[in-house]
Design brief:
This protein is an alpha/beta fold and 230 residues long. 41% of the residues lie in helices and 14% in strands. It has 8 helices and 8 strands, in the order αβββαααβββαββααα. A hairpin with a 4-residue loop joins strand 5 and strand 6. The chain starts with a helix and ends in a 7-residue tail after the last helix.
Length: 230
Amino acid sequence: MSDVEAKLCALLKKKEVEIVWNQNQSTMLSLLRGPGVRLSLHEIFAKAPDNVLKSVAHFALRGRRDRAYHKRVLRTFIHEQLSEVDHTSKLDVSRLSQRGKFYDLQVIYDRVNREYFNSELQLLITWESGWGWNNLRSITFGQYHDTFKLIRIHEMLDAPFFPAFFVEFVVYHEMVHAVVPGTFDAYGRCRLHGPAFKARERQYARYKEAVAWQKENKQKLFRGTQHGRT
């Protein structure tokens, strides 16, 4: 049992508390289903001071007393830690890769930037792997990392199974994140796709076609038989 788990056990007066550590900046603190107390916490909480852990315990208990205070403690801690990460993070640009076997991301990015953003965005883009399959119901095709101004597109899309307009839509979607940033709520949950984001996303010329294609091919995507993924 980690020190954080032990402290939370004492605060919650429970014999066992399970923590699943994550690196997900969109959901930094959440309750998980299962017996006992199960929490998903971002790694920044591994060194959280006692007052912050008290607020985590309050969140786990869904407490109402002094709720505003605990929200403020968590919000302040999260933003302070993220700011520190942003200043210490480094990016090895030499490892970025734009040209795939079927699609050149730089060509796609430049075209989208010109047509939808007046060539004003100055972002990096790369193919990457090792992530993407979140669970049995969702796939992450792309991610935008604001610290590095970097768009990561999963290399699964570099295949003839995916039509060019869909790959372009995924790139456009991530570029919209750069101009319509998400906002954190009191408990560290990031609202990435609010009304302003969705309105901007619908400006993509083939938006309806791209959404329809993904919906129609959902089962094929999870079976992985059409584009060489399992």
